[in-house]
Amino acid sequence: MTGFETLRLDGVTRRFGGADALAGLDLEIRRGEFIALLGPSGCGKSTALNCLAGLLPLSGGSIWRDGTRLDTLPPERRGFGMVFQNYALFPHMSVRKNVSFGLRMRGLPRAEIRRRTDDAIRLVHLEEHAGKLPGQLSGGQQQRVAIARAVVVEPSLVLMDEPLSNLDAKLRLEMRTEIRRLHQNLGLTTVYVTHDQEEALSMADRLVVLRAGRVQQIGSPEEVHTRPANRHVADFLGFRNLLPGALLADGEININDLGVRTKGTPVGPISDGDAIVAAIRPEDVLVRSGGVEVTVEVAAYHGREIAAEARTADGLHLHLRTSQRLAPGDKVSVVLPPDRLLVFPA
Amino acid sequence: MSGLASESVSASTPAVRHRLAERGIDPQLFLLVPATVFVVALFIYPFCYGIAVSLQPAQGGALAAYRAFFTDAYQRDTITTTLAIALPAALFNVFAAVPIAYRMRGRFRGKRLLTTVLVVPITLGTVLTAEGLLNFLGPTGWFNRILLSTHLVDQPVTLTHNYWGVCLSLVITGFPFAFLLVLSYLSGIDPTLERAAATLGAGWAQRFFRITLPLLAPGLATTFCLTFVLAFSVFPSAILVGDPTGGTRVISIAAYEAAYVRYDYAAASATAIVMGAVELVVISIVLGLRSLFYTGSTAGGKG
């Protein structure tokens, strides 16, 4: 394997028609890491991946593999594997030919090509389908061919561009574990692009959260999940309640229309009197006596939980999740635990 | 009460179109009737009429006109003459269109203008093209004057009133067709396939010959058939920029002479039927080869 110790992205920038699709991405990828690029559509995550693969020229910055500069090399000389969102399987080649394509391009001996192709096909459990054309396979099988084709060449880096977004929910969960298992067993280094925060949190060692072409936060899943760096990251990571207000003295905050003062955990530089946004996940809102009176407006069944939208007497909307069976019109009392209520500068 | 009753009746007996649909009949297909009548009246009937006329010569048996065509070398050789012009011209048009269309398959500034420039010769018509060829490439045209004045040649190069004049004319008028067809076939090939091949280590030549060309081949076969048929029925340019009594006496000239010089309608019809048969043979061979290629979807998976 053409391994590396670190792959460094140095201010990688890509402009489309004057607008920055990706602005100054700095990132160091260590061997064996699973990195997820996470963000809403149009945030630059696919641009970053294509720049890394060599499919898009950079407008600025550089990419280094240990001491070698990579961004001037064409894609075929970077030795990365890539899994495309639509799989991009060669429709006129059988599964076996698709998987062996990269090995044949490297001009390896025939016996080695056959052995490694067989291994890769076995790895993704497609032995019975090896002779079929991609058009004869289901979406999940096509996706596994795409993964086998990318990893068979033992690339120093595997790039995945939303590989699960075309699959149904059940298959998506299975493939998540499958990809993570391949990553560990083969000792791959993976950069994975997704807009699905659950996917990113459950699969990656490190997350890079992007918004409008700029890095918002880089950190472990736990860091990003519990301590989003700013309100945009919080918004993207499931803090559905973003409540505007102001910071008072003594760490107390006043959330508009909530009716009572409360306390929260400040993130970032805020001083007394500043406008703030208080963020809390629906599942962290506790339905408990002694809090704020709210009226349930919408209640949606989610198995063990009810996801409800409620409103305070002054008209503030709150999303909450609870195991209590709430129905529209119910009046309940909710508490916002200070350690879960993050306070960001507005 | 009566409203309810009629509703229940119509609910138990499905609408006529649903009953037809169950038998695989779409009533909207009847809209094709006028077009079918048109084709029958203007193509199939004259075709059958032509066969009938060709089998009723003034003298001899039913096949006398065909026997006369194939025994007379002057008539028979028009087949090879025409093939010698039409096959290279069609091949050249298809293969010249591939690299140009390949470079132009993406989106770039000025694509529309460039496409227009490449396609304009379609609108010229053969007569105008022939006139231009005679003026530019004739013995006193600017092409030969430049060659002579730069002393590259001692005598004018003969590019008109011979084989090359007809070939050039067919290339000028046939290339835009081939180019447009190849461009549309190429645009139908998912561009991520080549990107995937690149990430797997394939250089541009491998990407083209292993991914794009195999997916394009069926389209090239179809394009070749269409340009070949256009070239095979060459008539005006064979006369205007060719040598209609010698090197470019093509089969359509033979048919024209039989019909309007000798007034032998049986011979003319027989010649036309032979012409169609030769085209059919070439097209069958090409389409037979086409079926050896992958002819399915050119997308890389779920889009």
From TrEMBL, chain A:
What PANTHER family does its record include?
Answer: SPERMIDINE/PUTRESCINE IMPORT ATP-BINDING PROTEIN POTA, SPERMIDINE_PUTRESCINE IMPORT ATP-BINDING PROTEIN POTA
SMART domains in the record: AAA
The answer to whether keyword Nucleotide-binding applies is yes
Q: Which Gene3D superfamilies match?
A: 2.40.50.100, P-loop containing nucleotide triphosphate hydrolases
SUPFAM superfamilies, per the entry: MOP-like, P-loop containing nucleoside triphosphate hydrolases
PROSITE patterns assigned: ABC_TRANSPORTER_1 (PS00211), ABC_TRANSPORTER_2 (PS50893)
Residues of the ABC transporter domain: 7-237
Coiled-coil spans in chain: none
Instruction: Kindly state one GO CC term assigned in the UniProt record.
Output: ATP-binding cassette (ABC) transporter complex
Write the protein's name: Putative spermidine/putrescine transport system ATP-binding protein
Which keywords describe this protein according to UniProt? ATP-binding, Nucleotide-binding, Transport
Q: Which superkingdom heads the taxonomic lineage of this protein's source?
A: Bacteria
Q: Which GO terms describe its molecular function?
A: ABC-type transporter activity; ATP binding; ATP hydrolysis activity
* Keyword Transport in record: yes
From TrEMBL, chain B:
* Keyword Membrane in record: yes
Q: In the UniProt record, does the keyword Glycoprotein occur?
A: no
Biological process terms from the Gene Ontology for this record are: transmembrane transport
Q: Which residues cross the membrane?
A: 29-52, 79-101, 113-137, 163-186, 215-235, 265-289
PROSITE patterns assigned to the protein according to its UniProt record, in alphabetical order: ABC_TM1
Q: Which domain of life is it from?
A: Bacteria
GO CC, alphabetical: plasma membrane
Per UniProt, the keywords (alphabetical) are: Cell membrane, Membrane, Transmembrane, Transmembrane helix, Transport
Q: Which residues form the ABC transmembrane type-1 domain?
A: 79-286
Localization annotation: Cell membrane
- How is it placed in the membrane, per its record? Multi-pass membrane protein
The record's InterPro entries line, in alphabetical order, gives: MetI-like, MetI-like_sf
Q: Which family does it belong to?
A: Belongs to the binding-protein-dependent transport system permease family. CysTW subfamily.
| UniProt cross-references to PANTHER family, sorted A to Z | INNER MEMBRANE ABC TRANSPORTER PERMEASE PROTEIN YDCU-RELATED, INNER MEMBRANE ABC TRANSPORTER PERMEASE PROTEIN YDCU-RELATED-RELATED
What is the protein name stated in its UniProt record? Putative spermidine/putrescine transport system permease protein
